């Protein structure tokens, strides 16, 4: 019988760490934060507990890196859609980012369950709070760059303070809709969340975002 654990140990260090993070997220999504013990994670990844300790000083460090990876992956998924529209206009790229941010797989019950579990740790761990801030800024910078490009394309050049205010407002809209859509996956018709998001963000920015063709 093939030894899956030996196969795993032949992977690169980056792949090993990524696999351990994936296993951590699986355990947390299915059973909650408290269930994410070193033993449970090792069993899910089909490795020894010692291998986890080789790559992460503590279980808490593994949890922290898993949180940052999870949150940044949500942003990266949406950003990839915007990049795929690179031959389009800046408005098209902004539309794509908003639509992707408010559509599966970004809008997802599992993603929300993980987010909620991690939120419970913020008050207990200053390092988790720092990661939360970094991941929030990571998303907001993507959004702000797209907004700035779209505004310039329309002949508008707001100062940095005004751009910041508009970005925070748009970010709040997207965050709120993401929470609603992930918590109530059957509560909205197909394409409803992106359409609401485009209309709201368009109103805040005074841009003709309308409805994307793929909504």
Overall description:
The chain is 73% helix and 0% strand. The protein contains ten helices and no strands. Helix 5 (59-84) packs across helix 6 (90-101), helix 8 crosses helix 9 and helix 9 packs antiparallel against helix 10.
The stretches of 5 or more residues where confidence is low (pLDDT under 50) are 1-9
Which sequence of SSEs, written as H and E, runs from N to C? HHHHHHHHHH
| Helical/strand content category | mainly alpha
How much is the radius of gyration in Å? 20 Å
Helix proportion range: over 70%
Sheet-strand content, in percent, reads under 5%
Number of strands: 0
Number of helices: 10
Give the termini distance in whole angstroms.
48 Å
Q: Summarize model confidence as the mean pLDDT.
A: 90
Largest sheet: none
Query: Which term fits the overall shape?
Result: elongated
What secondary-structure arrangement, pairings included, does this model have?
Elements: H1 4-9, H2 13-31, H3 38-45, H4 49-55, H5 59-84, H6 90-101, H7 109-122, H8 126-153, H9 160-183, H10 192-205
TL;DR of this structure?
This protein is an all-alpha fold. It has 10 helices and no strands.
Key structural traits:
single chain; 215 residues; mainly alpha; 10 helices; elongated; disordered N terminus
